[in-house]
Specification:
Blueprint (H helix, E strand, L loop, with lengths): L1 E6 L3 H11 L6 E6 L2 E7 L6 E7 L6 E4 L6 E5 L2 H8 L8 E6 L5 E7 L4 E5 L13 H8 L8 E2 L3 H11 L10 E4 L2 E4 L5 E5 L6 H11 L4
Antiparallel strand pairs: 1-5, 1-7, 2-3, 2-6, 3-4, 7-8, 8-9, 10-13, 11-12, 12-13
Helix pairs in contact: 1-2
């Protein structure tokens, strides 16, 4: 059985990657090629898809992938189990080992230090196959801008403010957007949101996507 090993892993950073991966759903599908890690997860009604990417070499002092650049699949039906294990091992001298079967699917992950050794089983190879995205489909979802309708940038503070604002009673609170040049001004505040590539701003769409987007970041 082949192995992928992260030695002296930065536990908090690694846990944060898993936590971000599982913010939509505890079901996560991870692909590792070389040192590149990418997870995908859907929300409950499959209306949103999230991908998280990271270079594993930046998460530990020493990274070993015995399968080199072959695609390795790692699936969890409940990512919280791995997060719970990571919370128990401290932050010093921690090693994370994925045991990979001959079909290139992980069987289990072991988290250990000098005092403790904990194992979390991975999901069966067929259990979460629906989360695997072909390269062409992935490009269409995350990179192709041919049919882009809306594009705008907000920082964390602005996004939190918007999300809270739209959580108010929609029957008694009215929010207006004004497009001036490349900016959209929220008229109920002095906040200016950089805005690009849109002739028409649909408030209804924004109201619908904000609750989902809040779980993506």
């Amino acid at each position: 059985m082949s192995k992928i090993v992260l030695e002296n892993v930065a536990v908090k950073r690694f846990a944060n990657v898993i936590k971000r991966s599982a913010s939509l759903d505890n079901l996560i599908f991870i692909t590792v090629k070389g040192s590149e890690f990418e997870s995908t997860a859907y929300n409950a009604n499959k209306s949103a898809l999230k991908a998280v990417s990271v270079d594993c070499e930046k998460l530990c002092d020493r990274f070993v992938n015995e399968l080199s650049d072959d695609a390795v699949k790692i699936q969890f039906s409940n990512a919280n189990k791995l997060l719970s294990v990571l919370s128990l091992v401290g932050t010093e001298g921690v090693k994370v080992t994925f045991d990979i079967a001959s079909n290139n699917y992980a069987r289990k992950v072991t988290v250990e230090n000098d005092e403790i050794n904990l194992t979390v089983p991975c999901a069966d190879s067929n259990a979460l196959a629906f989360l695997e995205i072909p390269d062409r489909v992935r490009f269409n979802i995350f990179e192709d801008t041919t049919n882009l309708l809306y594009k705008f940038d907000v920082n964390d503070a602005e996004f939190k403010y918007m999300n809270q604002l739209f959580g108010l009673n929609k029957e008694s609170v009215r929010v207006f957007f004004n497009k001036i040049g490349n900016d959209v001004i929220l008229e109920s505040s002095s906040m200016i949101i950089p805005f690009d590539n849109c002739e028409h701003f649909d408030l209804l769409i924004l109201l619908n996507i904000l609750p989902v987007v809040s779980k993506l970041i």
